[in-house]
């Protein structure tokens, strides 16, 4: 049986193991399936099915270079999304302690600690001064 599988996967993308994109697609299809079963979004059932087929298509594909590149772009996008969330989270934490002002001249973002009263803010980029209440 093991031999059969290794022969079956010979020269196919899946013979290198499951990549990140395939794993992601499979998890997504399971989530779509569960949601479709316990919600009125019946269409998700087809989405789940399509994702499953696509995952298998990737595993059985013989165009290894192309699948590899797909996975690479997926990882790049994933990193961008992660970075975006980290930035958003960071902004949220900063907003608790700082006011974020935008320079009227050059649109540079300037961070001022809260509770400083009315102050003159000088833009570090273009040296424009403007009054703000912190
Ligand atoms: Zn400025």
Average predicted local confidence, pLDDT: 90
| Bound molecule types | zinc ion
Q: Based on the structure, what is the oligomeric state of the protein chains?
A: single chain
Radius of gyration: 25 Å
The ordered H/E elements are HHHHEEEE
- Strand tally is 4
**Which segments are poorly predicted (pLDDT under 50) over 5 or more consecutive residues?**
none
Structural class comes to: alpha+beta
Transmembrane segments: 21-37, 43-60
Keywords: ATP-binding, Helicase, Hydrolase, Membrane, Nucleotide-binding, Transmembrane, Transmembrane helix
GO molecular function, one term: helicase activity
Protein name: Replication restart DNA helicase PriA
Structure description:
It comes from Butyrivibrio hungatei. With 134 residues, this protein is α+β, with helices and mostly antiparallel strands. It has helices at residues 2-8, 20-37, 43-60, 64-97, and strands spanning 98-102, 109-113, 118-122, 129-133. The strands form two sheets. It has a two-stranded antiparallel sheet with strand order 1-2. It has a two-stranded antiparallel sheet with strand order 3-4. The longest helix is centred in the middle third of the chain and has 34 residues, at 64-97. The radius of gyration is 25 Å and the shape is elongated. The mean pLDDT is 90. The structure holds zinc ion. Zinc ion is lined by residues 103, 105-106, 108, 123, 125-126, 128. Zinc ion binds next to loops.
